[in-house]
Amino acid sequence: MRGRNLLAVLRRSAILSGAGKKTLRGVYASTSGVYGDCKGALVAETHRCNPQTERAARRRDAERRWRSAGRERGWRIGLLRIPGIYDARARSPRARLERGLPVLARQDDVVTNHIHADDLARICLLALERATPGRSYNVCDDSALHMGDYFDLAADLYGLTKPPRVARAQAQAAGLSSMMLSFMRESRRLDNTRMKAELGVTLHYPRVEQGLLSDPG
């Protein structure tokens, strides 16, 4: 809804629609959730989108609208498909570990992808200048991990207890949020080749452990 409102405002803007005016450049922050569950497969941007949550479906709809508006108006809009964001502050896994929340048992676990917030900010700036209009980019680091392994790694680095493992059937009764449960239903490995080749990205934190070690806490 917010994306539609913004598009409506931009379309009505006399400044942006006037002849001879500077071309609008922008980046739409979408989600890798537009691919849905891919059973752990490697997923490039050409993979069929199959959003399986209302949240991801809204993002996919917004992608189409921004791409259409870009073609119609000549706007240079890049589409970034972003997975789990983490950093040393608000998005650190530390708080979740301290609460002792469980992760899936190994046989039920899913592959997740991540990007450090500082790397994401730099990629957004690069995309403003270098993204091909209407083109989508997977934005992630080089360390696709099973979700449980991600939290185990964080626990080891922080000196905390590793989270308990539960079967998928028990996860809903384990105090997990509906959003976390939705993440536990989807598994994929994002291919970031296009991001590196076309946007010229050099990751400061190519692996999760490097980003987690930047946490001063």
UniProtKB/TrEMBL annotation:
Pfam families: Epimerase
Keyword vocabulary terms for this entry: NAD
Signal peptide: none
SUPFAM superfamilies found in the cross-reference section: NAD(P)-binding Rossmann-fold domains
Domain NAD-dependent epimerase/dehydratase: 17-140
Gene3D superfamilies attached to this UniProt entry: NAD(P)-binding Rossmann-like Domain
Protein name: NAD dependent epimerase/dehydratase family protein
Organism of origin: mine drainage metagenome
